[in-house]
């Protein structure tokens, strides 16, 4: 048989096979730019939103945020609440499974939440679940972990008992700290349970590869209960904290989503990409923290003077091109259960009047012209916008007080790790995005008992007492009044100087469908699709 005949017969055979074959659909891939490398993929140790974006694709909590940023059922298909508002009973989905095919059980959630509160875990965000009965006592080692207010009634029924009625509890359960882990996987694999090829997850996606500082790849989880409605096959996250590089990759069509870009590019990008540029107001505050453990930042006069000398209008208009708003309160506006936040008492003064008063306060404290020199180091996480803010603030303090100001920057993970681990500093940039739409989430950062996020180690018994009172108050109006008193005290003391109410800046390719701007900044890949 000649070669020509072999090739002809092969072609005929292949042709007959292909005619009867179903067309092979191309794999749908979403390329997501993330603003940095995650510190961890262990939900018990997560703290920043670049980790949250990944974890919420991999795991599903009892409740989740939909595409519009509203709370909806997640791993729990339904729940009921006792008449006194302290006992939730969750019914898990019968078809909720882990990526290894095993069922998601109530015991998995009991194990996961106990793990977060167990002091041996040292979870930095354990306080977010303190509304659960005995959670704070468990976390402090005062009672054993089995006394946490959790009970697996059966495999698919979970009961959670609270210390007191907590109106925002369903939102807490959608936080990344409350995401479950597979009890079997953690007990078998220990700390390695987060690794590709090992991780067992219950979300729309599963982890298949992770090259630090390069990419993290997830693929659709066929065991997910709603897999039939997940339209994207693969999601690749790129940890890019270089905003210019992120924009370039978006413009080159290498990325479909880019989170956070330099605000000075806003006008240019809008002209070029129109509605692909998204500026979404959010419940978030951009602030500087003062290390109150050391002089001169232990002196309220110095803190107030430094805060008053910062021209927030300049930061908002000149650096952020109007995409963010000047702020004089820790709690951002827009919370229906709180109303207008309590502002610093100098908020309504002109910038010139603020600077005059700031000079008087600094002189009283013995610093500045004719007094002790001011040597200030500003720490911030690497980012062009943060660098411009720090440079502008340094110039304001130099011009107003004759201060000598230096700047130090670290990547986002290292910056926050340093602050959370209690590292000493002078002044540090920070931002807080609402975990849930309640003022307590912002004010609790300054509690003396908050060892993780009270970066400046502020201690004020009166403030702590007001916050304690708010936790015990059931009447919403009285609780709001108490929280306003706490915020007013915080703004008088200025252990933190709020500068801006933030907006989220995204670049969203017109290929991406299903995107909805929302104040919670929640954009799970399972609600998106990609068209060519």
Q: Could you tell me how far the N terminus lies from the C terminus, measured between alpha carbons in angstroms?
A: 46 Å
CATH fold-type name of the largest domain: Dipeptide-binding Protein, domain 1
The coarse silhouette is globular
Rg result: 26 Å
Mean pLDDT: 93
User: How many domains, as an integer?
Assistant: 2
Strand content: 15-25%
What's the name of the CATH homologous superfamily of the largest domain? Dipeptide-binding Protein, Domain 1
CATH architecture of the largest domain: Alpha-Beta Complex
Class computed from helices, strands and strand pairing: alpha+beta
Keywords: Signal, Transport
Family: Belongs to the bacterial solute-binding protein 5 family.
GO molecular function, one term: peptide transmembrane transporter activity
Protein name: ABC transporter substrate-binding protein
Question: Mind explaining what this structure looks like?
Answer:
This is ABC transporter substrate-binding protein. The protein has 532 residues and is α+β, with helices and mostly antiparallel strands. The chain folds into two domains: 225 residues, Dipeptide-binding Protein, Domain 1 (Dipeptide-binding Protein, domain 1, Alpha-Beta Complex); 222 residues, Roll (Dipeptide-binding Protein, domain 3). 31% of the residues lie in helices and 21% in strands. Strands 1, 8, 9, 10, 11, 12, 13, 14, 15, 16 and 17 form an eleven-stranded mixed beta sheet that branches. A four-stranded antiparallel beta sheet has the order 4-5-7-6, covered by helices on one side. A two-stranded antiparallel ribbon has the order 2-3. A hairpin with a 3-residue loop joins strand 8 and strand 9. Helix 9 packs antiparallel against helix 11 and helix 15 packs antiparallel against helix 16. The N terminus is likely disordered.
């Amino acid at each position: 048989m000649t070669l020509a005949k072999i090739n002809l017969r092969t072609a005929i055979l292949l042709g007959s096979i292909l005619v009867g074959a179903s067309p092979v659909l191309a794999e749908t891939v979403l390329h997501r730019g993330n603003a940095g490398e995650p510190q961890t993929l262990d939900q018990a140790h997560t703290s920043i939103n670049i980790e949250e974006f990944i974890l919420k694709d991999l795991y599903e909590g009892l409740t989740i945020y939909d595409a519009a940023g509203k709370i909806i059922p997640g791993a729990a298909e339904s729940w009921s609440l006792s008449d006194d508002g302290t006992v939730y009973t969750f019914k898990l989905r019968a078809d909720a499974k882990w990526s290894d095919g095993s069922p998601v059980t109530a015991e998995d959630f009991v194990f996961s939440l106990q793990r977060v509160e167990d002091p041996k875990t040292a979870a930095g965000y354990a306080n977010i679940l303190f509304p659960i009965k005995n959670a704070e006592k468990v976390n402090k080692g005062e009672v054993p972990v089995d006394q946490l207010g959790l009970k697996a009634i059966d495999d698919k029924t979970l009961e959670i008992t609270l210390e007191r009625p907590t109106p925002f509890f369903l939102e807490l359960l959608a936080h990344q700290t409350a995401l479950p882990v597979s009890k079997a996987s953690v007990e078998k694999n220990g700390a390695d349970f987060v690794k590709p090829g090992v991780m067992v997850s219950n979300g729309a996606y599963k982890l298949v590869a992770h090259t630090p500082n390069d990419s993290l790849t997830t693929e659709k989880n066929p065991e997910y209960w709603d897999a039939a409605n997940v339209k994207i096959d693969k999601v690749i996250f790129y940890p890019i904290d270089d905003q210019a590089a992120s924009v370039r990759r978006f413009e080159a069509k290498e990325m479909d989503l880019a989170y956070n870009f330099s605000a000075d590019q806003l006008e240019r990008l809008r002209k070029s990409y129109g509605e692909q540029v998204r500026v979404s107001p959010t419940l978030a505050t951009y602030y500087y923290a003062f290390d109150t453990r050391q002089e001169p930042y232990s002196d309220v006069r110095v803190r107030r003077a430094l805060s008053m000398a910062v021209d927030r209008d300049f930061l908002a208009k000149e650096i952020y091109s109007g995409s963010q708003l000047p702020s004089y309160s820790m709690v951002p506006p827009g919370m229906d259960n709180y109303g207008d936040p309590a502002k610093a008492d100098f908020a309504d003064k002109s910038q010139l009047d603020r600077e005059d008063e700031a000079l008087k306060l600094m002189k009283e404290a013995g610093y500045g012209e004719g007094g002790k020199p001011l040597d200030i180091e500003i720490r911030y996480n690497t980012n062009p916008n943060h660098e411009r803010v720090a440079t502008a603030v340094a110039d304001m303090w130099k011009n107003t007080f004759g201060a000598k100001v230096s700047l130090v920057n670290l990547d986002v993970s290292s910056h926050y790790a340093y602050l959370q681990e209690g590292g000493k500093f002078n002044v540090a940039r920070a931002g807080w995005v609402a975990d849930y739409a309640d003022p307590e989430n912002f004010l609790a950062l300054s509690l003396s008992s908050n060892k993780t996020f009270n970066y400046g180690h502020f201690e004020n018994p009166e403030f702590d007492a007001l916050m304690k009172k708010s936790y015990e108050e059931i009447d919403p109006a009285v609780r709001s009044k108490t929280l306003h008193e706490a915020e007013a005290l915080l703004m008088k003391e200025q252990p933190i100087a709020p500068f801006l109410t933030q907006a989220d800046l995204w670049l969203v390719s017109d290929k991406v469908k299903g995107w909805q701007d929302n104040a919670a900044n929640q954009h799970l890949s399972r609600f998106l699709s990609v068209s060519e």
